[in-house]
């Protein structure tokens, strides 16, 4: 305790410069703690989303009583967001309903009433076309307890049992223990945490260490003086730790306050594809404990390590003895991690890519972590070796001075550049995570198909859907009937028939050859395989509903030898069709039992949104299958992209802050040496060049290594993930340009740090 109080007295009695340094340490720590709190709070924000979504999920039963309330849920894409509508029929009881209302609602909607989320209410004013999806009048707004997030597209629509039809299920209540569609899949959360950890937490640990080591040389000389005056070695380390722990604790408190303000502001403005309520991002006890205990603990160990030399060899510190070369243990970590990463990359080059099953998953994680940590720990050794070799061989005064300084203080130099090097390494991993997840994104074809079950559409609605603005073509697919009890292979085969004209076929597929109107023709796509039983001469029965069919309630079609060669879009609702049937073959009023109405439009997002709105206006309760669009996957990718972009911004902020703090502190620390060299005759231009070279050379080496090792680590991750992309060479120019920009900015930032005025008093003080 005595040494701790001595450290505080030295802190506040050692002059204005020392107090300013203390404030800088606290301010830098507060930025780091704010970013740490934001990263730790992201999982709780996602859990709050899933919790509210689970609490409103309808509990249903297939047993439908005559007076039971019914529910039908539909979720259609609106752009890249799901638009969820819950149709509720309160039942036929004359008395008040006894069923509890869902969260965010006081009661179930009555027939003709619509309760919408605030975002849907705004959309009704901005886009009147979506009114067709919500038959009825808007009677109220859903409360926050019934919405996963403030921007959710959600609505409760009151209707009658006959409007819901046979697809409705008996409603028993609301609430499940799990969300039907989590904001981020549990398997993806692990990858997301790993990416955010490398993007934010690793640079954050480096930044906090940098803040704890501000003016390390000056403090080491002061601690050495205390040691020479008789203070014990342990006491000397405690004095040093007292200052760093106090600064870290004050910085942690300031950082938590900054996060509270940031949460209040960001929860109201939101991020792209990610919104939350202020209470979702409230600081938990765990997050508060980690920030208030973890950051001072890190500062304690950093302070003790920083005071070790002053306590052990005070005379060497006071006389500025030549420091020992950097340790080589970091190189062992780098070689181990690089060996694991390179081994998995070699499996792909050999044509047998490894999977992420068994021990491969933890080995890949260990390889990536060891490579990143080894790179950070090896940079001082690499800088020392390069500086020593260049200083011995160069004849340039500028390069010689710069390299000799880097040779003497490799650790000081690398504190300046480590944050930015780590950011470039982590950026490659983040890009790999996005590449893996984008396998389920929206198809890039020129058309978009929509499949609707024909059983939920009346004949009038069918004609109206074909006339929806933006629909290029409308056709019907029907499945042949299969006798499951038959042992015959022929009866086990199934053929999908496309009921369309040649003009409709031309609009539904990429190209077609040999079509003739009015004839049944066989469809063949050379790029896809067909059922072996679908051969010319085979007969397939199609069950019909209603009068007027060719053979009562069944239409038998024999597959002809005449063939249409076509190429379907990928994906397509008609790509699996085996034969083309002219619409005239189905008589008036005949409807296949197993059939879908297929619509096609442009794949432009605005056109897709317009067609979906038109379908909703004609048939609000029909289930729409937008072929190839995984709307929940798109939603998850949008959230993950937002979180990774947030991580990149935080990592860039932390890296830039670490660079600015380190460069400024290093320039202040080196003022006596700069003054001495200037008095010996060096010009200010030379000193600026020396200062620039001291930073640019190790930074360039570090960024080059980070770029190469980061791409290897990313390829290792992609290979074991099993996706279509294993080597993301397209990302190399982007990262290379970013690294070159970082070097250029760093070079410009070092130029003003050599002062114009020479103060010989600095030498006397030293």
Features:
alpha+beta; nine-stranded mixed sheet; 23 helices
Please tell me about this protein's structure.
- Helices cover 54% and strands 13% of the residues.
- It is elongated.
- The relative contact order is 0.13.
- The model has no long low-confidence stretch (mean pLDDT 79).
Nutshell version of this structure?
By secondary structure, the protein is α+β, with helices and mostly antiparallel strands.
β-sheet strand percentage:
5-15%
Report the strand count.
19
Largest sheet: number of strands, sense, barrel closure: 9 strands, mixed
What is the terminal-to-terminal distance? 31 Å
> Structural class per helix/strand content?
alpha+beta
Mean pLDDT level: 79
Count helical runs.
23
The coarse overall form would be elongated
The amount of helix comes to 40-55%
Evaluate the radius of gyration. Answer: 35 Å
Strand order in space, largest sheet = 11-15-12-16-10-9-18-8-19
Note poorly predicted spans: none
Blueprint of the fold:
Elements (H helix, E strand, L loop, with lengths): L1 H12 L2 H40 L2 E4 L8 E9 L2 E9 L23 E4 L1 H9 L10 E5 L11 E6 L2 H4 L4 E6 L11 H27 L3 H13 L4 H37 L15 H22 L1 H5 L1 H5 L10 H21 L10 H34 L3 H12 L1 H28 L9 E7 L5 H8 L6 E7 L9 H4 L3 E4 L2 H7 L2 E3 L7 E4 L14 E7 L8 E5 L4 E5 L11 E3 L9 E2 L2 E8 L2 H14 L6 E2 L4 H39 L1 H9 L4 H38 L9 H20 L10 H5 L1
Parallel strand pairs: 3-6, 4-5, 10-16, 12-15
Antiparallel strand pairs: 1-7, 2-3, 2-7, 4-6, 8-18, 8-19, 9-10, 9-18, 11-15, 12-16, 13-14, 13-17
């Amino acid at each position: 305790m005595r040494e701790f109080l001595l450290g505080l007295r030295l802190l506040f009695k050692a002059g204005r410069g020392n107090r300013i340094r203390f404030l800088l340490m606290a301010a830098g720590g507060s930025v780091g703690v704010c970013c740490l709190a934001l990263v730790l709070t992201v999982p709780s924000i996602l859990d709050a989303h899933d919790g509210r979504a689970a609490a409103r999920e309808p509990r249903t039963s297939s047993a439908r009583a005559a007076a039971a309330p019914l529910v039908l849920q539909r979720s259609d894409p609106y752009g890249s967001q799901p638009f969820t509508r819950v149709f509720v029929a309160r039942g036929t009881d004359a008395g008040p309903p006894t069923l509890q209302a869902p969260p965010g609602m006081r009661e179930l909607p009555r027939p003709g009433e619509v309760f919408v989320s605030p975002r849907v209410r705004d959309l009704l004013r901005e886009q009147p076309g979506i009114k067709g999806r919500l038959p009825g009048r808007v009677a109220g707004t859903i409360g926050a307890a019934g919405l996963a997030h403030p921007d959710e597209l959600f609505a409760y629509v009151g209707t009658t049992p006959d409007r819901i039809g046979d697809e409705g299920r008996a409603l028993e209540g609301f609430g499940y223990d799990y969300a039907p569609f989590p904001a981020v899949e549990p398997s993806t959360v692990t990858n997301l945490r790993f990416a955010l950890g490398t993007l934010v937490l690793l640079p954050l640990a480096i930044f906090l260490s940098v803040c704890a080591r501000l003016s390390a040389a000056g403090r080491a000389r002061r601690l050495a003086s205390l040691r020479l005056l008789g203070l014990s070695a342990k006491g000397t380390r405690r004095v040093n730790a007292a200052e760093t722990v106090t600064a870290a604790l004050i910085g942690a408190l300031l950082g938590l306050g900054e996060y509270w303000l940031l949460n209040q502001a960001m929860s109201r403005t939101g991020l792209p594809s990610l919104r939350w309520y202020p209470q979702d991002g409230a600081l938990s006890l765990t997050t508060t404990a980690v920030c208030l205990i973890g950051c001072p603990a890190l500062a304690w160990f950093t302070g003790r390590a920083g005071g070790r030399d002053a306590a052990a060899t005070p005379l060497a510190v006071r006389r500025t003895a030549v420091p020992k070369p950097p340790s080589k243990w970091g190189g062992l970590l780098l070689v181990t991690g690089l060996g694991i990463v390179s081994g998995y990359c070699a499996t792909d080059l050999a044509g047998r890519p490894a999977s992420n099953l068994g021990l491969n998953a933890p080995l890949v994680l260990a390889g990536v972590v060891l490579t990143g940590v080894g790179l950070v720990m090896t940079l001082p050794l690499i800088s020392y070796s390069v500086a020593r070799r260049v200083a011995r061989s160069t004849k340039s005064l500028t390069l010689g001075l710069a390299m000799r300084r880097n040779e003497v203080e490799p650790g000081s130099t690398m504190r300046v550049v480590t944050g930015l090097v780590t950011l470039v390494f982590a950026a490659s991993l983040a890009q790999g995570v996005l590449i893996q997840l984008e396998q389920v994104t929206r198809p890039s074809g020129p058309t978009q198909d929509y499949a609707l079950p024909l059983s939920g559409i009346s004949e009038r609605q069918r004609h109206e859907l074909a006339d929806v603005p933006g629909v290029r073509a409308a056709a019907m697919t029907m499945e042949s009937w299969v006798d499951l009890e038959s042992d015959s292979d022929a009866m086990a085969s199934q053929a999908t028939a496309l009921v369309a004209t040649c003009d409709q076929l031309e609009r539904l597929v990429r190209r077609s050859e040999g079509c003739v109107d009015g004839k049944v023709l066989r469809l063949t796509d050379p790029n896809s395989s067909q059922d072996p039983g679908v051969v010319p001469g085979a007969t397939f029965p199609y069950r019909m509903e209603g009068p007027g069919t060719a053979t009562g309630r069944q239409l038998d079609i024999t597959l002809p030898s005449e063939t249409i060669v076509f190429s379907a879009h990928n994906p397509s609702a008609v790509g699996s069709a085996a034969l083309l049937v002219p619409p005239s073959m189905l008589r008036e009023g005949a409807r296949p039992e197993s059939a879908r109405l297929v619509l096609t439009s442009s794949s432009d997002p605005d056109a897709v949104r317009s067609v979906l709105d038109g379908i909703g206006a004609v048939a609000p309760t029909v289930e729409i299958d937008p072929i190839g669009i995984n709307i929940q996957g798109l939603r998850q990718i949008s959230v993950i992209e937002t979180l990774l972009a947030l991580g990149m911004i935080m990592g860039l902020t932390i890296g830039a802050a670490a660079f600015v703090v380190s460069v400024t502190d290093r320039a202040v620390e080196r003022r006596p040496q700069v003054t001495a060299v200037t008095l010996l005759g060096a010009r200010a231009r030379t000193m600026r060049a020396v200062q620039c070279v001291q930073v640019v050379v190790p930074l360039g080496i570090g960024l080059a290594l980070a770029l190469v090792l980061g791409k290897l680590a990313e390829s290792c991750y992609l290979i074991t993930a099993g996706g279509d992309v294993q080597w993301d060479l397209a990302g190399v120019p982007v990262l290379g340009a970013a690294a070159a920009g970082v070097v250029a900015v760093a070079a410009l930032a070092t130029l003003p740090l050599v002062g114009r005025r020479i103060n010989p008093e600095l030498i006397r003080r030293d």
